[in-house]
Design brief:
With 260 residues, the protein is of the alpha+beta class. It has 6 helices and 5 strands. It has a 5-stranded antiparallel β-sheet. 23% of the residues are buried.
Amino acid sequence: MDIPYTVQPREDTGLYNAKVGIWLFLASEVMLFGALFSSYILLRVGAPEGYWPRGWLNVPIGTVNTLVLITSSITTVMAWASLKMNQFGRFKVYHACTLLLAMTFVCIKSYEYHDKFTHYEITLTDGRFADGHIVANDPKADHVVISGRYVRDRKDLFDLETRKAPHHHEEISIARSQIAKMERYGPWHHTYLAIYFTLTGLHALHVIGGAIVIGFLWGPGSKLWKTDPERFTNRVEISGLFWHFVDLVWIFLFPVLYLI
């Protein structure tokens, strides 16, 4: 027995089964990300004055990633529209572009993560702080070399946007005997980084998951086009709705984390 409403819309909802399912799923996703955004707001409002990071993220790179994801939303729409016009070859091209843009987004985000995990804040025994990216950290050596700067007030490490004096980076060699504490800029370093990695990491998992589905529909899943083109078109539409949601989440993440 065939499952009803896989192609034709239901009388009560006006939607076929898969579209009802994806909208219910996206409603749960809205609640998930809504809770995380609310947590961000509460954490930021409750932070001590002057100790909430500003300017820690690379805005140009974030802007490029935003353009990449917006473009991928356009190509996935074009892929679906190509199927509606019975142009399977154009669908393959547009869906391949969506997949490549998704991988580009993940690669750029991986670069940003690598930048944070190679960035250290070092507390020195004389009360100063050294901050920068690791150049050399051989456990057998008696010195750690970073490309960064010294500050006397830790508060100077937080607001990089409004500091009037430019922060010059130079290669600094620090004796291990002078290091009281050395911590990289991971999610454990600061509340801001904890929520940053949580939000962007969860979003990246959604991008990867969506890319896997898109890759399947572009590859082996596209065989359905030969036997049931309308149902295959619907599957592409459903994947597109999820992809638009992923894009929309990033449209909120970018200004909240990078600009405000």
